[in-house]
Amino acid sequence: MTGASGFVGGEVCRELRRDGHQVVGFGRRPAPPGLDGVDYRRWDLAGGPLPEAPDVDAVVHCAGTVSDWGPAREFHAVNVDGTAHVLATFPRARFVHVSTASVYDPRRPTVQAAEDEAPTGRYLNAYGESKARAERLVLAAMAQRPAIILRPHAIYGPGDPTLLPRVLSAVRGRWLPAVGDGRQRVSLTSAANLARACVLAATGPVEQGVFNVTDAAPVVLDDALRAVLAARGIAARPVYLPLRAVWPLATAAELLFRLVRSSRPPRLTRYAASHLAVERTLDISAARERLGYSPAPTSFDGAASW
What we know:
CATH topology: Rossmann fold
Largest sheet: 4 strands, parallel
Pfam family, one: Epimerase
Shape: globular
Distance between the termini: 24 Å
CATH superfamily: NAD(P)-binding Rossmann-like Domain
Strand order of the largest sheet: 3-4-6-11
Low-confidence stretches: none
Mean pLDDT: 95
Strand content: 15-25%
Protein name: NAD-dependent epimerase
Helix content: 25-40%
Order of helices and strands: HEEEHEEHEEHEEEHEEHEHHEH
Radius of gyration: 19 Å
Number of strands: 14
Structural class: alpha/beta
Number of helices: 9
CATH architecture: 3-Layer(aba) Sandwich
C-alpha cells in the first residue's frame, strides 16, 4: 500500500485489515495513528525503486501529489516517476493504480463519461497531465502483468485535506461564491466507497481493466454545497458567477502568480472553475458489473467532525 500515511491510503489500509488481509504500508511521513496491524515503512518513491522489497500479492498505489497548482517537475517526479518506481519494485504483483477523473478533458463537460474517453491530449495543469502519463505507464504494463486503474472524482470524508477545506475556505460572510448556475450535476466519491473499490480490485477475480469509481449516483452541485454548509453549521448560502466572467479572471490570476513564482495557488484557478461550472459525472456501470462494486450514496453525515 503506497501513500499509507495519506487520507485515502489510510482508509484503504483499514479496509484491507477489516477484511483480514496482511498489509504493508509505505509513506514518506512517520507512521500516523490509526494504522493498527499495518506493517508501516518509510519510502519516498520519487527517489527510486525500493531495495529489498517485501513479497506481496497485490499493490494498491495511492501515493501522489494532488493539487491544481505547482511546478510540473514536482508532479512528474511523484506521479509519473514514482509510479514507474512502484511498478519496477513489485514486477509480479497485481497493481491497483488509484488515478483520478482529472484525466478526462477539462475543457468540456464530462457527462456520464465512460472509461474509454480518457486519457485525453490536453490539460489545464500539471496534475491532470501527470496522472494521465502515469495511467499510460500502467496501461502499458497490462501487457505483462495484472493491473487495474481506478478513477475517482472529488474524494471526501473524515480527514479530507483538500475538498472540504477548500469549500469552507471560500466562504465569505454569508456567501459561498461558486461558478456556474448550481444546477450542474457532479459525481462525488467518498473515501469509504473508494477504499471498498480498492479492495475489490486488489483481491477480486478481475485482474485487468479501467474503472470509474464514484458514489451511487450524481448529486446537484447546489444541493451538495448546501448540505456541507448545513453539516458544519455555517450560516451561508452559495452564490453563482457565470463561467464566462470567471474564466478570464482565473487566467489572469494564474499568470500573475506564475510571474511572481508563488508557491501557493491563486484562490481561483481555471482547473477549479472548470470542475465547478459544468457537469462532471462518470458512468460506473463497468465497476458495478465487473468488480461487484456497490457504492453507498453521497452523504455528509458526520461532517461536523471532519
